[in-house]
Each structure stands twice: as C-alpha cells, then as structure tokens.
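Same chain as my last thread, 121 residues:
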Amino acid sequence: MSYASASKVYKKTQIETASPKQLVVLLYEGAIKYIRLAELALEKEDFTKVNTNLIKAQDIVTELMVSLNHQNGENAIASELQTLYSYVLNQLIQANLKKDQNKMAETRYLMSQLLEAWASI
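reply #2:
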C-alpha cells in the first residue's frame, strides 16, 4: 500500500470514528490547511490552486454553518457562530475574487482561534 492510499484510509477511519466535537476540530483543521495552501499558491502566482483551495475552505465553512444546532437553548451560541461563519465565508469569497493575501491570513487566524477554543473544550 502506498503512502498516499494509506493516508486516505487513515483519514477516512479518523472521520468515521470521530465524535461530533472531533469532527468540528477536523473541519477547522481542514479549513486552515486549505487557506494556507491557497496562500502558498498565491505566492507562486498559481491562481488555479488558489481558487481550488479557497473553494475547499469555503465548502468547509458552509458545512460548519449548516451543522449548527439552533435548538436546545443554545441559540445564542449558534447565532454568534452563524454570524462569524458568515463573515469568514464572505472574506474567503472576497479573498478568492481579489486574490487578497490579507483576507486569507485574517480568515486563517479566525479559524485558528476557533480551533483553539474547540480543542480546549
């Protein structure tokens, strides 16, 4: 088995056996990774890779948005996260349209802060 296929199997198993909290952490890690890959691609002026990676990050943020639980008395937290995710998503779209490294760095920072908060729960 090659390293690439072993890595895919490991990642699939990790996702399938993760708790809901762990899934959120994995989503944050994925978004951060794709934003960073977009930043690196921008440095090389590989705009196709910038676009591809920012779209992957946007998809992850969208998944985080739709998975929010607005029930069970946690409406305030879900609403705040919804607002934050909407902002991050908009910034990622703008970063992609304008190839703006500052917007990429800002969204990566915000996602890193959220990752730290979730990881400490």
